[in-house]
Design goal:
Blueprint: E1 2-10, E2 16-22, E3 28-32, E4 55-58, E5 63-64, E6 73-75, E7 82-86, H1 89-99, H2 104-108, E8 113-115, E9 118-122, E10 130-134, E11 140-143, E12 149-153, E13 160-164, H3 179-190, E14 195-201, E15 205-206, E16 213-224
Parallel strand pairs: 3-6, 13-16
Antiparallel strand pairs: 1-2, 1-4, 2-3, 4-7, 5-6, 8-9, 9-16, 10-14, 11-12, 12-13, 14-16, 15-16
Length: 233
Amino acid sequence: MRIVANHVTRMGAPRICVAGVDIESFEHVRPTTPASDPITRDLLREEGGPFRMGAVVELGATQPAPTPPETEDHRFRTACARLVEDMDGDEFLALLEMVSSPDISSAFGPALERLRWNYAVERGCGDRSLAVVRARKRPELEVDRYGKLRLKIDDVDPQAYVSVTDIRFYAEDQKTIRDRVVQSVRLRLRRGVGAFLMLGLARAYQGRDDDRERHWLQLNGLCLVDRPTGDTP
C-alpha cells in the first residue's frame, strides 16, 4: 500500500503517529504497529526516514485493524516503510482539496459533539477519526495560559480551540514549542494565506471533570498553501 503522508503527529518522545491518503482509494490510512515495533522519530525524514508532509510512502503489506472511530487503522511493519517520492506542492494541494470535507461536522459525522470549546466523540463511537478541512476563515495559532499550543478555528460559532499535535511545531523532545515556526505561520495566516487543517480524534481518555472517555479533536497537521509540503509548515 502507498500513502501520501498528511498527518505527522507528536506523541511521547520518541514515539510519533503518522497517517496519509491511500493513492488508490483516496481514503485515509493510519499505519499502526504492535508495541514490539513502535513508530518513532527515526521514521521522520529529518531523521533519515520516509515520513514528512507530502511524501509518498510505500508501507508494504498491510492488514486492516479498525476499531471505531479509528476505522482507518492498518497494521504494518516499520521496516517495510520506504520513501517513493515527494509529491509536488501543487499536486499535494489538489489531493487535499479532493479529499477535504466542507466543515468539521460533515467531516466526522453525527457522533461528533460540541463540548465546551472543542469537539469530541464518545469512546467506541463514530466511523472515522481523520479528516481534512479547508479553513474558510483565518485560523489563529496561540499559546494558552498553560503553555500549550492551540489553533483557534473561527469557521464555527462559537469558536473552537484544538490542540496542535503537528510534530513540525516542536523540538526534538516533542514538548518544546518552536517559537520561530509558530511566529512564521501566525504571520502568514494573518496575511490571509490559505490553509488546510488535518484534523484527527485522539485516543480516548477521561477528562478530570468528565465521567466518560472521549476522543477529543486535535490538529494533526497544518498545511499553508504557500508552503504545502516539507519539514517546516
